[in-house]
Request: fold
Amino acid sequence: MQIVPSSLLALAAVLALMVMGPYRALWVFLATTPFAAAAAFNLPAAGGASILVSDLAAMALFAATALSAGGLALMAGTARPFQPGFWTLALALFAIFATLMFPSLFRGQTEVFSIARINNESGIVSVPLKPSTGNLTQLFRIMLGVIAFFALATVFRVRPDGQMVLGAMTVVTAVHVALGWLDVVSFAAGLSQLLEPIRSANYAILFDHRMVGLKRMIGGFPEASSFGYFSLGLTAFWLHYWISAPMSRRAPWMLALVGIVLLRSTSSAAYVSLVLFLATYALVMLALSLRARVGRRGAAIAAAGAVAVWAAAMAIFLAYHMVEPVTAFLDRALFDKLDGASGVERMSWNAQAFVNFRETWFLGAGLGSVRASNWLMAVLASLGVIGAVLFAAFFTTLARAPLPKDDLRGPVVGALKAAALAFLISAMLTASTPDLGVIFFAVCGLIAGLSRGAQLESRPN
Reply:
């Protein structure tokens, strides 16, 4: 085990979670998630695998919940039949079975794109399907999300405090934005080494990449697209909260801060995901307004959003044809992507993933066996039809989770749902594995916990 400078950050987070408890230390756990390139420690004996600060924090969160009074019994209640926790548990059990069994069951029967390490460098190669360390690595990663979901769904079912969640989301947004600007400013000043202590994971850290002269913002992440993914989820959260709680003073500031770093990320995937999210969100809000479930403000903003998207599209179209710097930027960020070598390669991953899906009898090849460039294709190729159905059931129950009736928890749960939707839309475009990240499962756990807890509170004694 290799200790690194960010090990101290991991130790501090674990101590805070164990001493303060999972409820009061929610902000501590969420604040670790933007440190996506910071290792708690590295494992040279396991091919250089890194255990991240947020990974250790997720395990500490689960342990603190389980060790609390009646913790295990309460977590069992989270898996109540046909609730989100039930489908999460079913998905986890199937993922374990599929990952341990299917690579051996279908060994050599299909060619897969997989990550290989040669001379300490990672590359994507086509090889016959067989068990590998990648299976265990990817299984571990998705299990981290599962335990974070169960811990938070349990804690906030027992104590459904919307103010605590809102405060924690404020903290994680502030940390994420601060890391983003620190990355850009330190690079411009020639002091990129300032962030080296939190870039200790065994990942390729693309801190010096540029796009049409702009340094790409990565903050605490390895590269711009993952930074943009995280930024999009936070932007969706604060957008919905601002709409649903118009008297909030912090919402417009938080939305502006995270929206700016989202645009500054120069991530083409984030830009396309943002447009798709705004279009989807506007349609959902319009549908809800027609059913009289939101006020006039929501309907007005939805309509204004649709007009703004149309106007922005027209402005970008005109600028693309008339302003040379804009033409160069959009060609580099968007239009040349699919025609370039990277775009062609990613499309080949998806094509081969579909072949893997068919050649494994629609059961999948197990987590870590297949690499795709689209979340749905990654799920089908890795976990097959069964995994896709379990994910669909999980998403459906979360989407249908009732919004609490009070003025704080209702907007918070709605904002968490918007964040989850944004994460999913972004993953649909670029995710290479079925794992949607610890932050996604944490958000889902908060949705399930707050919604169910508010329901239980409203029942007559």
User: Anything to note?
Assistant: The longest strand covers residues 111-118. The longest helix spans residues 162-188. Residues 117-121 have pLDDT under 50 and may be disordered.
